[in-house]
Amino acid sequence: MVLFSLLPNFWRRCLGGNGNPVKRVRVRAPASVANIGAGFDVLAMAIEGFFDEAEITISKGEGRINVSSAGFDVPSGRENIAHATAEEFLNRYGIKGVDVNITLHKGIPPSLGLGSSGASCVATVYALSHLFGIKLPLSEFLELAGLCECFTAGSPHYDNVAASALGGVVIVDCANKEAYRIIPPVDIHIALLIPESVPRCERKTALARSILPKQVDLKTLVYQSSAVAKLVYAFMTGDLEILGKAASTDFVAEPKRSALIPFYWELKGFSLSNGALGFNIAGAGPSVFAICRSPEDSLAVADAMRKFASEKGMKADVVVTKIAREGVSIVK
Known about the structure:
It is an enzyme of class 2 (transferase). Catalyzes the ATP-dependent phosphorylation of L-homoserine to L-homoserine phosphate. Its main location: cytoplasm. Keywords: Amino-acid biosynthesis, ATP-binding, Cytoplasm, Kinase, Nucleotide-binding, Threonine biosynthesis, Transferase. With about 325 residues, this protein is of the alpha+beta class. The chain has 2 domains: about 10-185 and about 325-330, Ribosomal Protein S5, domain 2; about 190-320, 2-Layer Sandwich (Alpha-Beta Plaits). The chain is built from 12 helices and 11 strands. The strands form 2 sheets. Strands 1, 2, 3, 4, 5, 6 and 11 form a 7-stranded mixed β-sheet that branches. A 4-stranded antiparallel β-sheet has the order 8-9-7-10. The longest helix is centred in the last third of the chain and has 20 residues, at about 220-235. It is globular. Residues about 1-20 have low confidence and may be disordered.
């Protein structure tokens, strides 16, 4: 299966002729919420409202990679994940004699559980694939983008990158680097609480993974598997009641990671009592999400979250969104 229909290989045609032609593309990838409920590392959803955009130009040169960033505060140069992604791409496909200039427009706040680094990786890989005319099978695309997430997460994982690439809800086969997209038959409305005052940590995701149990007992495995199965059923059928209950259920990650989020259990109970159908941690946190029945309910739940945060002295943004049906794309 080829993930993207790319232009014919114009590398020789565009960069092998007279002069020093330049090729440019701008690509957008949406934010995502991974680890939905019990779906640790295997279930994620793309969300509307937040995007990273990679604007990349290639030209004949000496193999330099230049990265600048705009928007949310992330480093430029070699410390930017787009640099590591471009370097891995060029080395993997034996591309030499070309300069790559990347401007990363960060529209997704980093280190807050919204798939920021994954979207940057996806946008960069997609843009370079387009520019060099390289057709990547889905498994290879995910493997490459997921590997680049090591730069921030400490280990490769594929749920965020799959959601940003494909859109909708994704089920990830980690062993085979494969993903399967679900487009729910109804809109899934979401309220997000995104803390502002959480100290930034370079390896926040790695830290959040390090506190998880290395083994679980058989009883926990059965409960966790049941919750994941219910999530998949609910997303495929659009049953919002079941979706809310399943998204609220996690016997492995949530009990441990909740300790990293102030007032977590109190906020969860308050949101559920004010109209949310489901509630859990977004990715590795510290953001949280609530599944809602309608746009009106999502606004009401967002207001309740905002009130709770204010009363607790928490600095946070509260936004309403829904599952994004489209993944990575070229900006016209």
